[in-house]
Specification:
alpha+beta; Chloramphenicol Acetyltransferase; 2 domains; 30% helix
Length: 431
């Protein structure tokens, strides 16, 4: 394998530095070694991974994604991304998923490519991309690996051609181009209920993957008249509500699920950067709608109202306005203090848990034949402590729970509830 001092050729023409996108500005400010803003996407193939071939595929593909081929630098007023010429080397997956990426180190790439047996995994620092963007890179990398291994994979269904010049639209901060209203007002969501239990003293986390037939989940959702995502959000709300009842809190708190929304569905952009926003369905005191079916229907009604472009743009506007306010002239340490305090009050403490759904995994048929499974994993919030990520491959849905609590109550109750609903659930402890 080539030494770590090797660099990529400079034939690919692209910028030397980039501003962080609107969402990306959050993550360097709030990241710690214990809460690292790292997420993982993985593909499990049907045959053992050849490390040399994987490195060759990465060398071929990486320059096609200049926004990923960067390092994070500290400026006077903002963090920014700078081209990183250092070769990105694959590594055997000996740590755990979503391990901290020490971006403060010089020439440190903001992603990690690893392999283990038949699995290819990529951990991303959230400052550079989101779930949708990460999947394009993962699919392109795996497709190139399969080509080098003898399978001719065409360029479509999210697989990019490594020989093509990068498209400038892939690197845009789409938030800056959205039709946002001029008058903005940030809404404070209030404190949300937190699942009981002690945090783990170490950085280790519970990571549990549940596999289930997507048609069985779809049937349960359809019987109520809601989508799969709405149904699973309702399951999490119901679990947290029941736990709050058990603990008999004197002053009940709202139960809230943070749900990332892919804004590419509402705004035309090719951006491979962060292009997601958060909506937060909730179950609030006095808890009049308490059955799973009632909660699911209330989630549906919330989504109908929240997932309207005008409302989404209005909720995004305060964030973009802050970039253009007097705050932009504040030195970076002061900005970080402001961002951390706002996030703690309006982000972290205002949710019970997170649920993200990357939807159905698609790829060219030649590639799908070689894939046995897919995974997506997000780390738990420092306050909310638990999160879940969903992705569907063919007839199977994969739900991965992550928790930094000693006892992952939400994950255990999720399994129990789905089984009681007649859904076949297979469990695998990842970490």
């Amino acid at each position: 394998m080539t030494s770590t001092s090797a660099s990529y050729p400079t034939a690919v023409r692209h910028r030397e530095w980039y501003r962080l996108d609107n969402a990306g500005k959050l993550y360097p400010a709030i990241t710690t070694s214990k809460w690292n803003s790292v997420f993982r996407v993985s593909i499990i193939l049907r045959s053992e991974i050849n490390p040399q071939t994987l490195q060759e595929a990465l060398d071929s593909v990486f320059p096609r994604f200049p926004i990923l081929q960067t390092q994070l630098c500290t400026g006077l007023f903002w963090y920014y991304l700078e081209k990183n010429p250092k070769r990105l080397l694959i590594q055997e997956d000996e740590g755990g998923p979503c391990e901290y990426i020490p971006w403060q180190e010089k020439n440190m790439h903001l992603l990690r490519v690893s392999y283990l047996e038949r699995r290819i995994s990529i951990d991303f620092f959230h400052a550079i991309t989101d779930g949708a963007g990460s999947m394009v890179f993962l699919k392109t990398l795996v497709a190139e690996y399969l080509r080098l291994s003898g399978t001719d994979v065409p360029y479509h269904s999210g697989v990019l051609d490594p020989s093509e010049e990068p498209n400038s639209g892939e690197m845009e901060d789409a938030f800056q181009r959205m039709p946002l209203p001029q008058k903005t007002r940030r809404e404070y969501n209030g404190k949300a209920y937190r699942m009981p239990g002690d945090k783990r003293k170490s950085n280790e986390r519970h990571m549990i993957s549940y596999r289930m037939p997507v048609e069985e989940v779809k049937a349960k959702a359809k019987a109520i008249g809601v989508t799969i995502t709405e149904y699973l959000v309702a399951v999490k709300l119901y679990i947290a509500y029941q736990e709050q009842l058990k603990n008999k809190k004197k002053k009940p708190l709202p139960v809230k699920v943070s749900v990332p929304v892919n804004m590419r569905s509402f705004f035309p952009t090719q951006s491979l950067r962060n292009c997601s926003w958060i909506v937060s369905p909730e179950l609030a005191p006095p808890f009049e709608k308490t059955s799973l079916e009632e909660i699911a229907l209330s989630v549906q009604e919330y989504m109908k109202q929240a997932l309207v472009p005008e409302k989404l743009y209005a909720s995004i506007a305060p964030n973009v306005a802050n970039e253009r306010s007097f705050l932009r002239f504040a030195p970076l340490p002061l900005k970080n203090l402001v961002i951390r305090s706002v996030y703690k009050a309006m982000g972290s403490k205002s949710k019970t848990t997170t649920l993200t759904n990357l939807g159905r995994f698609t790829a060219p048929p030649e590639m799908m034949e070689q894939i046995e499974g897919v995974e997506t994993i997000i780390g738990p919030d420092r306050v909310a402590c638990t999160s879940a990520a969903i992705i569907t491959l063919a007839e199977q849905m994969y739900v991965t729970y992550t928790s930094n609590q000693e006892e992952p109550i939400m994950a255990h109750e999720f399994e129990r509830l789905l089984l009681s609903q007649g859904i076949s659930v297979q469990k695998e402890v990842l970490w």
